[in-house]
Every structure is written in structure tokens, then in C-alpha cells.
Fold this protein.
Amino acid sequence: MSTYRADELQGIIKINPEICKGCDSCKSFCPTDAINGAYGATHEIDGEKCLQCGQCLVNCPFGAIEDMADAVPAVKKKLADKETTVVATVAPAVRVALGEEFGIEPGKLLTEEMYGALKQAGFKIMDVNFAADNTIMEEGTELVEKIKKYVLGEPSEHELGPLPQFTSCCPAWVRYMELYHPKLTKHLSSAKSPQGMAGPVAKIYGATEVWHTEPENIYCVGVYPCTAKKYEASRPEFTSAADYWKKRGHTATYQDTDVVLTTRDLARLLKDLNIDLKKVEPITESDNPLAEYSGAGTIFGNTGGVMEAALRTAYFVLTGEELQELNFMPVRGLEAVKSAAVPLKLKDGREIELKVAVVHGTKNVEPLIQEIEAGKSPYHFIEVMNCPGGCVNGGGQPINPMGTSWTSGFKAIMPWN
Amino acid sequence: MKYDYVEKAITVTRREFIGMLGIAAAMLWTGAFAVTDLVADRNKYIRMRTAGLYKDDEKQAVRQSHNNKSLMKMYETWAGKPMGHLAEELFHTRYYDRTVL
């Protein structure tokens, strides 16, 4: 029995048996216990159980785990082709980690340098932060509609799932729900992830309004801190742009996002093209509407960020005024499960309390799921990100020697390195 | 007597013994510090990247999604309303039961 549909990318994460020492480190990071093999023996990943999140990859002390879906050669070929408009859609967490591959400290914000490097490589730019704002508009509206229907008892014209609403931005988390709790997928927000929205926006709105080209000429390259995004991009229903254009006389079939590069992949591509992030000329892209973003869009890469962004908009829609204190501290930080209650004074004077929870590390979500199954969940909105810390620590990020891979930290100071 | 055995007198003085204890304790202390330091720093790079994104948030003139002017223009001129007809078609999806594929 397969847990993949036809054409879905699988087997992205693989353990190299030549290098694996059987140390069991990866097992402690796997959210679904998908890694088989006795202590000391070569380990193997069970692809049917695997979420493709890549946490084992970034935490392997021996660098034995590999990302098998390499799109760098394909992107290079498209960049060389003058007929194609190659659009890079870049996720929030990439800009604070890409520098690490070029010897810059972790966490250094390099948005302009990253734009500069992408432009030099020949990409057109769309910021996924714009799509994140788009996601908040859709997901936030859905939450507000559900609150109106289930909490305030007002009728809704939309078809809505039940409360609590789960976020749907994280592809590994969505796969986890589809695979382990298929009966509860109605709790997932029906809004696509920012990647799911970035593709149609680039190939429809971007094609006509920004780059003035035919949608067939656009090659959409997602740049994400994530290996599971490679799998998500291949989901067969993510062809909204092609379906839209087919209704308008076009015939071609293509995915919304053609290929996905991880942060590591992008660094490799840039190095391949002799572009050094340290020396590149920073640009602002201020005249590009698809690179405009709000602060709410950029914190999507942190655990609690989607929640914080959604609260800022939901608060405004429900109460009619802007949130005074924008930094919402209860959802920040690295605690496994964070929860908060936000008092709201509605436009008509009624008062309600919005109860939210934030989870990172998919294993930590089980108690909350059991609450829902028992019908006792106190929450309205729950954010889940598969990777500890959120996308900033995604499986596609640079492998940091400060992490659990302590042998590489040791190796780095050895004279023969 | 045939098996008379006298144990050697202890040649470590009280002061030397205390000194040796001190050295042993210092070595254990250093080792424990190095290990706890490694564990404490394990998440440091995650915290640094997190701080980077919060800094980007504070840097922005606009900090709420509904105030993103280009996005609102896109809704007005093309996509309609959030959860509207076109938005449902392009920005919403459905989920699959992967246990029965």
C-alpha cells in the first residue's frame, strides 16, 4: 500500500548506508518513527511513514543523510534559456540562514543581498512573504467566519470545517494529518500553504501585471528552508494556474511551482555561478509589487509566527481596530506547546475570548489531537509546525555545526580542515 | 613468623590528598561544564535565526497582512475578496486520506 498518489515526489530523504554508523541520533528527531535499523546497524527510512521533513538530515552527526531531489541542474538550464522567465519565490526563513553557507553568522538578515544575488543569477523575484500575507487573508478570513458561525451563532455563506482550526502551511504537518489522523483533516484550514498561493499568483497575476509574459514561459522556482516543500509542490491538485488558463483558451499543463530548491540548494547554485553573497550588490525591489510584504508575512518562518500574523488581522477584522501591542509574546519562544487567550471586544460590544495554541515538533501535537477526538479541545486556532523552532530550523536549512552535529564543530577547529 | 606482612605506610600527606581531590573535582567540573555548554548552545543558531526574522518584522513600515498595499491592490483588481469565488478556486484546497490510497 502506498501513501503517495501518482506523480507525487517520494524518497526525497535517504540514508547513505556507506556513511551511516547506526548511532540512532536520527531516530530521536523523526516525528513518525519512520527510521528502521538496530543500534549499530545501518539505518533505513520507511518512505511510507516518512513526512519528508528532513529533520534527521540536518541533525545527523555524520552527515550520512542525503536530499535526493536535486533541481539545481534543471534550474541552471532554465536560467541559461533566454525564452524563459525564471521566477524565484523565496520563503521568509531563507533570508536569515542563506548567509551561513557563505561564512556569515546565523540569523543575519540578508534580504537585499539575497535579492541582489538572485537578480545576478538571472531570476525574477517574488517574495513568499507576499504569499504569506495572502495566506493570512484567506486563513484569517476562514477563522473569522468560523468564529462568527460557531461562537457568535451568525449564519455563514461559506462551507466551513469545524473548530479548532489547524494551520495548513507546513507540508510535513499536512502529510502527518492525512496519514495518521485522516478523520481530522476537516480541522485543517482549507487555505493552501504560501507555496500553494505563490504559484498561481506568479503565473497569473505576475504574468499579466508584473512580467508581461505568457504563463507558459514562466518557470517558477520555489526556494524554501524545507525538503517537504519539494513533495508538496508535486501534489497533483497544485495546478491551479494551468487550470485557470485552460478555461481561458490555453492548453499547456504544468505545476504551480515547477521545482523547489532548499536554502542549501540555492547556496550551491549561487556558488556554481560564482556569485558570492558577501560581495553581491544589495537591491531593494521596491518597484516590484510581488516583493512587497508586511512584518506579519516575514515572521511565518518562526514558531508562533503564523499565529501572531493571523491574530493581528483577525483582531482588526473582529474588533474594527488595530492591535495596539503588535509583539505578542505568549506565542514566541521555544517551549513545545504554547497557549494564550486573547480577549476581543467585538464591534457590537460583545466580548469573547479567542483561545489559541502553538505547537512545534509534530510529536508534541498528539495530546491536543486527543483533546479534539474527545471533544474537549478548548482552542479555536492551533498552529503546528513540524520542525522544532519552525521553518528557521527546517530540513532544508544550512547544516549548522552549533547544532547536535557536534562532531562537525570539533572537526572545524582541526588543523587538517 | 613465616607470613608476617606489614603494609607500606601511606606516603600521601593530608594536604596532598586534599590537593588531589581538588584537581579531580576541577577536571570533573570542566567536563560537566563543556557538556552542559554544548547542550545549552544546541539551539543557539535556531534562536539567532528566529531573532533575525523578528528584526525584519520590526523593520517593516507595515506590520499587518491586511495593510499590504500591493496585496490589497491584487484583490481589488483581480482576485476579488478573500474566500470569494476566484480565491476559493486558486487559494484553497482539499485534503486526502492517505491510509486508503
Summary: Residues 11-59 of chain B form one domain.
